[in-house]
Design a protein that fits this description.
The chain has 332 residues and is α/β, with parallel strands linked by helices. The chain has 2 domains: 117 residues, translation initiation factor eif-2b, domain 1 (Four Helix Bundle (Hemerythrin (Met), subunit A)), CATH 1.20.120; 204 residues, Translation initiation factor eif-2b, domain 2 (Rossmann fold). Helices cover 41% and strands 17% of the residues. It contains 10 helices and 14 strands. A hairpin with a 4-residue loop joins strand 8 and strand 9. The chain starts with a strand and ends with a helix. 50% of the residues are buried. The mean pLDDT is 97. It binds 5-S-methyl-1-O-phosphono-5-thio-D-ribulose. 5-S-methyl-1-O-phosphono-5-thio-D-ribulose binds next to helix 2 and strand 9. The site of 5-S-methyl-1-O-phosphono-5-thio-D-ribulose has 17 residues, from helix 2 and strand 9.
Length: 332
C-alpha cells in the first residue's frame, strides 16, 4: 500500500510523482532544500499535499537552526516554491503563528507536531469530503448506472495526505456499492491524468483516459453526468483556481447543463482574496510543452473558473453554493 507522505524518524518519505505511473519509488527528504526541491519539481504536488509537505519542511529546517532568521528563511524558501496553491501558504502561516512566539529551543519539536497535525487534519477533511460528495453521487445513481463522472488533473489521494478531494466521493461510492465510471482528462502539459489513471487502477475503479480536448465532445454526446475537480485556491466569492483546462470544462459543462462541482478542504479557501482576479497564476517553464526552444511559449499552470459556473463546493463541512461561501463560513 502506497502513501504520499509518511514520517521516518527525522525524515519525511514521499512517493516521487514525477516517476509515476511508470515506477512507484519513494524518496526520503531530510533537509529544507530537499523539501523545497520536491515541491518545485513536483515530486510532491497537489495543493493539500504540498501544504503538509511544506510544514514538514519547516520542521526539518528547525532541526538545523531554530532562531528567528532560520524560521523566516525556511518559510520564505518554501513559500517561493509554488505560488497558486494556497494550502502551501496557509500551512506556512500556521507554522509561523505557532512557532514565532516560542523560544528557539522549543521550536523543532513543536514544528514536527504541528506538521503532523496538519497532515492528519488533511486526511480527516478529505474523508469528510468523500462522505458529502457521496450523497451527490448516490442521488445521480438513482437514474444513471454507472454514474459517469469527469475529472481533470489529479485530485485523488496522490494530491493529498490521504483520500483525495475530487476523487474522495468516488472512493466513498465504491465502498457503498455505487457504480461510478470516471472520465479522466489527460491534463496537458504535465499529464497528471495519468496519475489519476494509476490510482484508480490501483483501487479497481473503472475509468477511461481522454485527451483534454475530447471533453466537450463527450459532454455533447451525453456521456458525462457530473464534473468534479479539485482546487488550488478558492477566492472569497467562490471563483476557483485549478489546473489549467478546468475553466474550459466548466464552460462546456454549463453549455450541456452538466453539474460542475469543486471539491476542496476549507484550507484551500483564501478569504483574503476577494475574487479570482487576485489569485496569482503560476507560470511554469515553457520546456514542459515539449516545443523546440526557439518557439515562444506560454505555460500557465492554472486557470480560474468563475463562481457562476460552479454548482457547489464540496468541503469537509458540507456542500456550499460558491456565492454563499463567505456567509456560510462566517455563520459557523
Ligand atoms: O500542478 P499540480 O499537479 O500540483 O496541480 C494540482 C491540481 O490542480 C489539483 O487539481 C489541485 O491541487 C487539487 S488537489 C486535491
Amino acid at each position: 500500500m502506497f502513501a504520499t507522505l509518511t514520517e521516518d524518524g527525522n525524515a519525511v518519505v514521499i512517493l516521487d510523482q514525477t516517476l509515476l505511473p511508470h515506477q512507484a519509488v519513494t524518496c526520503r527528504l531530510t533537509t529544507l532544500a530537499e523539501v523545497a526541491h520536491a515541491i518545485s519539481s513536483m515530486q510532491v504536488r497537489g495543493a493539500p499535499l504540498i501544504g503538509a509537505c511544506a510544514a514538514y519542511g519547516v520542521a526539518l529546517a528547525l532541526h538545523e537552526a531554530a532562531d528567528d532568521t532560520a524560521l523566516e528563511s525556511a518559510i520564505s524558501t518554501l513559500g517561493g516554491t509554488r505560488p497558486t496553491a494556497v494550502n502551501l501558504h496557509w500551512a506556512l502561516q500556521r507554522m509561523r503563528r505557532l512557532l514565532a512566539p516560542l523560544a528557539p529551543a522549543e521550536r523543532a519539536t513543536a514544528a514536527w507536531a504541528e506538521a503532523r497535525a496538519i497532515a492528519r487534519e488533511d486526511a480527516a477533511a478529505n474523508a469528510a469530503i468523500g462522505g458529502h460528495g457521496l450523497a451527490l453521487l448516490a442521488e445521480l445513481a438513482g437514474s444513471r448506472k454507472p454514474v459517469k463522472l469527469m475529472t481533470h488533473c489529479n485530485a485523488g489521494w496522490l494530491a493529498t495526505v490521504a483520500h483525495g478531494t475530487a476523487l474522495a466521493p468516488v472512493y466513498a461510492a465504491q465502498r457503498s456499492g455505487i457504480a461510478v465510471h470516471v472520465w479522466v482528462s489527460e491534463t496537458r502539459p504535465r499529464n497528471q491524468g495519468l496519475l489519476t489513471c494509476w490510482e484508480l487502477a490501483e483501487a479497481g475503479v473503472p475509468y477511461t483516459l481522454l485527451a483534454d480536448n475530447a471533453a466537450g465532445l463527450l459532454m455533447s454526446q451525453g456521456k458525462v453526468d457530473i464534473v468534479v475537480v479539485g482546487a488550488d485556491r478558492i477566492a472569497a466569492n467562490g471563483d476557483t483556481a485549478n489546473k489549467i483546462g478546468t475553466y474550459l470544462k466548466a464552460l462546456a459543462a454549463r453549455e450541456h447543463e452538466i453539474p460542475f462541482y469543486v471539491a476542496a478542504p476549507l484550507s484551500t479557501v483564501d478569504f483574503s482574496c476577494p475574487t479570482g482576479a487576485g489569485i496569482p497564476i503560476e507560470e511554469r517553464d515553457g520546456a514542459e510543452l515539449g516545443a523546440p526552444g526557439r518557439f515562444p511559449v506560454v505555460n500557465p499552470a492554472f486557470d480560474v473558473t468563475p463562481a457562476g459556473l460552479i454548482a457547489g463546493i464540496i468541503t469537509e463541512r458540507g456542500i456550499c453554493r460558491p456565492d454563499r461561501l463567505k456567509a456560510w463560513h462566517d455563520e459557523s
